Amino acid sequence: MKIDEGTEQRVRDTLHWVVKRDLDKFDAALKLFPDKSAQESALALVVAVSGFVLIDLHGARPTPQQVDVLAEEIGRMEAWASVTSDEAARFMNAVVAGSSLTERLTPENIAVLAFVVAGSLLSARPMPEGQWWFNYLDKVEAAIEAAGR
Predict the structure, then answer these.
(1) CB 114 within 8 A of CB 47
(2) Contacts (Cβ under 8 Å, ≥6 apart) of 101
(3) Fewer Cβ atoms within 10 A, N terminus or C terminus of the chain?
(4) Cα gap 114→47, rounded to integer Å
């Protein structure tokens, strides 16, 4: 997957507000994607990020039980965005299975879930001293681009 610089920056800006748990600024950032094509590119990127991080956290594709454990935590941590553990589990299981998100989720919720789950997974991962979620995102994006070649 080749990551467009404009999409990447808007995705990072939006993820920043997820990590900060600022609903108003997160909502505003979601509206800054200029058209349907930019929205679809951003969604593809955050879904790929979520999938990579899920596999990286577990060393393999997580089982539904492992996803449930993460989903419970995400449901608690991300209540500010009205994301439930059930929605988070459906999203992550769809990502891991490579199935259509619209089969398990309503189209209105997919973008919010994709960003909130990706931001939560990135920020909750233990990092070495002096490293932040965005440093990990750099590595994730590099791996996503390398895999797409």
Answers:
(1) yes
(2) 47, 91, 94, 95, 110, 114
(3) C
(4) 6
How far is 62 from 41, CA to CA, in rounded Å?
25
Q: H or E element: which one contains 91?
A: helix 85-97
> Buried b / exposed e across 51-67, counting CB within 10 Å, b at 16+?
bbbbeeeeeeebeeebb
Side chain identity, residue 145: E
Specify the DSSP class assigned to residue 102: H
Contact between residue 3 and residue 149 where contact means Cβ atoms under 8 Å apart: no
Q: What residues have CB less than 8 Å from 99, skipping those under 6 apart?
A: none
- Locus of tokens 């577990």: 58
pLDDT tens, the chain, 149 aa long:
788 888 999 999 999 999 999 999 999 999 999 899 999 999 999 999 999 999 999 999 999 999 999 999 999 999 999 999 999 999 999 999 999 898 878 777 899 999 999 999 999 888 788 889 989 999 999 999 998 75
φ/ψ (deg, to 5) at 128: -65, 160
Q: Which residue's entry shows tokens 């060393």?
A: 59
Q: Measured in whole angstroms, how far is the alpha carbon of residue 123 from the centre of its chain?
A: 10
